[in-house]
């Protein structure tokens, strides 16, 4: 790899990591009290999925350990945002579903996030966002397949 390619790669990942840190900071400040980004992410996924998922499936989807996902799910269950039940077909597994309170919490989070996200997109411009999205998706896809 040439020095130019190395410098380009370092600059790209530096910008992505810095943007990630700044975005997480902003999201954390506007999420409803007590909700973490990981909580919102799981609730959002379960709301879109429309069906139960096992903790192992969720851990795989979010690229975290089963222990980390169990911790997140325990907090969500304690808050009443998810229902966790035994898998009727395999007693060793559990299944997770979003609760009505979880749907409401997700909606509150989206209401809190929307103005900030819209502001950032507005400042960048829709055309720039549409241009960069395919590149970010391809980068994510390539990174996912290299685990």
UniProtKB/TrEMBL annotation:
Highest taxon, organism lineage: Bacteria
Domain (HTH marR-type) ranges: 9-141
InterPro entries per the UniProt record, alphabetical: HTH_MarR-typ, MarR/SlyA-like, WH-like_DNA-bd_sf, WH_DNA-bd_sf
PANTHER family xrefs: HTH-TYPE TRANSCRIPTIONAL REPRESSOR YETL, TRANSCRIPTIONAL REGULATOR, MARR FAMILY
Name of the protein: MarR family transcriptional regulator
Lineage of source species: Bacteria, Pseudomonadati, Pseudomonadota, Alphaproteobacteria, Rhodobacterales
């Amino acid at each position: 790899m040439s020095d130019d390619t190395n410098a380009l790669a370092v600059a790209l990942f530096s910008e992505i990591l810095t943007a990630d840190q700044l975005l997480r900071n902003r999201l954390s400040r506007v999420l409803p009290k007590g909700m973490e980004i990981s909580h919102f992410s799981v609730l959002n996924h379960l709301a879109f999925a429309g069906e139960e998922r096992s903790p192992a499936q969720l851990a795989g989807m979010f690229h975290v350990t089963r222990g980390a996902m169990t911790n997140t799910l325990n907090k969500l269950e304690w808050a009443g945002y998810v229902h966790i039940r035994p898998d009727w077909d395999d007693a060793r597994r559990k299944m997770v579903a979003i609760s009505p309170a979880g749907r409401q919490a997700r909606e509150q989070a989206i209401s809190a996030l929307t103005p900030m996200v819209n502001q950032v997109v507005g400042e960048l411009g829709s055309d720039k966002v549409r241009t960069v999205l395919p590149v970010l998706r391809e980068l994510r896809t390539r990174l996912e397949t290299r685990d």
